[in-house]
Structure formats: C-alpha cells, structure tokens
C-alpha cells in the first residue's frame, strides 16, 4: 500500500483500525503501521493468541517490511503503533535500525521506552531513533479499555 499523501494522523488511524481488528479477534488490541520514505506502508495487528508470543504487531510489520523492502530500507522507515512497545519489540526496532517511532498509549507494565532511554544514556545500543509517545492517546486507550472490560466480564 502507498501512503504518499497520508498525514501522520491518518497513518495512526490505520494502526487504530488494525487494533480494532485485533479486538474483534479477541487479541490484545494493538495495531502497527510501518511507513517507508517512498510512502509504502505495511500494517498488522497482534496475533499472539492465534499464532504465538512472537507475533506482536510491531514484529509482524518489521518482518513484512524486511521481506518486501530489504534491510537497508528499514533505515528509512517510521513505525506507528497504538501502544508503547515492549522490550522485545524495541530490540527488534534497534536491530532493524528504524528511523523513528510514534506510539499512542503508554504501557506502564510492559512498555520499554523509558528503559531504552536509560540504556542510550549509558552508551549502550548505539542506534538511536527519535520517538513520540501519546499520539492519539485517548483513541488508543479506549480500544484497550474495551478489551480489558470484556475480559473482566468473562
């Protein structure tokens, strides 16, 4: 898919649609979009329950981007995700050498951005990328709240 005319808000809306698709599949509702410099995008949502614990939305789009665009092009990609990434996903982003991260909701339990910043300050993980958290936060949080309310009712 090509998104050369889409705004960052519209790209995050695609990630939110992916999170809603995960919600419908009874997956933790996280959606991700990997945007390349040429405007091509890859999109995915969590498949942990249907597949296995490696199938986080972020890992899926990074893998698809790698297979379709090649390793060098990952350096020219920005990852949009509806929830702050975990340590596993952040590690994959470092290895992929992405050029940026935008996420919606902060994840107090499993989010790893604060730890990653600490590691960068200590001189570890030389590949650094800018990130922006809290983008369309309320919409992203609402989907998660809906999911966990449904789970508690069961």
Describe the overall structure.
This protein is of the alpha/beta class. Helix content is 45%, strand content 18%. It has 6 helices and 5 strands, in the order H-E-E-H-H-E-H-E-H-E-H. 37% of the residues are buried. The mean pLDDT is 90.
Q: In total, how many beta strands?
A: 5
Rounded mean pLDDT is 90
Q: Which class do the helix and strand fractions yield? A: alpha/beta
Query: What is the CA-based Rg, rounded?
Result: 15 Å
- Order of strands across the biggest sheet? 2-1-3-4-5
Low-confidence sequence ranges: none
Q: Which descriptor suits the 3D outline?
A: globular
In whole angstroms, how far apart are the ends?
38 Å
Q: Give me the number of helical elements.
A: 6
Name the helicity range: 40-55%
* Main β sheet profile: 5 strands, mixed
Order of helices and strands: HEEHHEHEHEH
* Percent in strands: 15-25%
Summary keywords:
single chain; 154 residues; alpha/beta; five-stranded mixed β-sheet; 6 helices; 5 strands; globular
Provide a brief overview of the structure.
By secondary structure, the chain is of the alpha/beta class. Helix content is 45%, strand content 18%. The model has no long low-confidence stretch (mean pLDDT 90).
């Amino acid at each position: 898919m090509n998104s050369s005319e889409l705004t960052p808000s519209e790209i995050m809306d695609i990630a939110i649609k992916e999170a809603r698709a995960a919600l419908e599949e009874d997956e933790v509702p996280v959606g991700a979009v990997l945007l390349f410099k040429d405007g091509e995008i890859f999109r995915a949502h969590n498949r942990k329950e249907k597949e296995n614990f490696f199938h986080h939305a972020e890992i899926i789009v990074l893998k698809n981007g790698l297979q379709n665009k090649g390793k060098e092009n990952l350096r020219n990609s920005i990852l949009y995700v509806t929830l702050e990434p975990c340590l596993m996903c952040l590690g994959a982003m470092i290895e992929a050498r992405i050029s940026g991260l935008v996420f919606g909701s902060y994840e107090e339990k499993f989010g790893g951005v604060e730890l990653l910043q600490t590691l960068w300050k200590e001189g570890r993980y030389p590949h650094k990328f800018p990130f922006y958290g809290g983008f369309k936060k309320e919409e992203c949080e609402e989907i998660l709240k809906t999911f966990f309310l449904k789970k508690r009712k069961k």
